[in-house]
């Protein structure tokens, strides 16, 4: 259980909050190859990594070193290890804020920008090829979807080659626009029926709980992820093998964790990553 910065204004630095977290010793250079606007407040980066020592487990973050900037960022990887293996790239999704690394991403970063990165964190799901995967309950709030999305993509990647249990994702955001990766998640669910995704919007925008682009239609619920929805999700999974992964703001993590404890989920089966 560790903390990760996906950026608001901080009282402590990413390196201070994660000083006891495991991390790679060496820095790897990377080049920004693509920038996308994932929502009104979130930019996506694709980075080419020219170092075969750079490896990560689904759910981990990177220390993000920007030339000329003293503050080190901490951003969760939202791509899967397969993408790194096949194309030497990783993806990040960074929410706008006044925190210097996030502000740099939104105001100065461009295709061709050079950075250095180092993988860290103990929030990950990385079953060995011979392992039987447990059922997963994944819970994300806002940009906290990043490491959880990496886990979902990894489960989908390995499912043709090894046994994977059932996965349920509960994803909450303030509005539809902030439900990052929703179209991709829907496509993953379509291809992998064992992966179920449910979406929640906490601010009421209109009475129509559906949004679509072309043939894609997102169905979501108004309100927060509550005890009833968590009970429903847990009941659909194999409790004897269940693992829970939560990423979001600290109040959400406490709220969800307390409910899971109330549902008699053992503490060692609940993993969380805070974003600040």
SSE blueprint:
Elements: E1 2-4, H1 14-17, E2 28-37, E3 42-49, E4 61-65, E5 73-76, H2 81-87, E6 89-95, H3 100-107, E7 114-120, E8 136-141, H4 145-158, E9 167-173, H5 182-191, E10 195-201, E11 210-213, E12 216-222, H6 227-235, E13 243-248, H7 250-262, E14 270-275
Any overview of this molecule?
It is a single chain. This protein is α/β, with parallel strands linked by helices and 276 residues long. 24% of the residues lie in helices and 32% in strands. It has 7 helices and 14 strands. The strands form 2 sheets. An 8-stranded mixed beta sheet has the order 1-14-13-8-9-10-12-11, sandwiched between helices. A 6-stranded antiparallel beta sheet has the order 5-4-7-2-3-6. Strand 9 (167-173), helix 5 (182-191) and strand 10 (195-201) form a beta-alpha-beta unit. It is globular.
């Amino acid at each position: 259980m560790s903390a990760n910065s996906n950026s608001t204004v901080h009282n402590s630095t990413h390196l201070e909050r994660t000083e006891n977290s495991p991390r790679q010793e060496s820095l790897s250079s990377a080049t920004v190859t693509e920038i996308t606007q994932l929502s009104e407040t979130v930019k996506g980066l694709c980075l080419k990594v020219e170092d075969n020592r750079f490896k990560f487990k689904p759910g981990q973050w990177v220390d993000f070193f920007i030339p000329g900037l003293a503050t080190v960022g901490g951003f969760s990887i939202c791509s899967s290890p397969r993408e790194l293996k096949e194309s030497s790239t990783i993806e990040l999704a960074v929410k706008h804020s006044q925190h210097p690394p996030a502000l740099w991403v939104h105001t100065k970063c461009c295709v061709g920008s050079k950075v250095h990165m180092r993988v860290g964190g103990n929030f990950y799901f990385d079953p060995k090829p011979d392992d039987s995967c447990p059922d997963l309950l994944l819970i994300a709030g806002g940009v906290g979807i990043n490491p959880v999305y990496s886990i979902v993509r990894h489960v989908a990647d390995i499912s043709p080659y090894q046994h994977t249990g059932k996965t349920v994702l509960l994803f909450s955001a303030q509005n539809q626009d902030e439900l990052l990766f929703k179209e991709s998640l829907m496509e993953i669910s379509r291809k992998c029926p064992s992966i179920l995704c449910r979406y929640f919007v906490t601010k009421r925008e209109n009475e129509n709980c559906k949004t679509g682009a072309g043939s894609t239609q997102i169905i979501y619920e108004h309100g927060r992820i509550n005890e009833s929805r968590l009970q429903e999700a847990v009941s659909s999974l194999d409790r004897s093998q269940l693992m829970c992964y939560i990423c979001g703001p600290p109040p959400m993590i406490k709220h969800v964790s307390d409910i899971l404890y109330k549902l008699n989920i053992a503490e060692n089966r609940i993993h969380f990553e805070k974003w600040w």
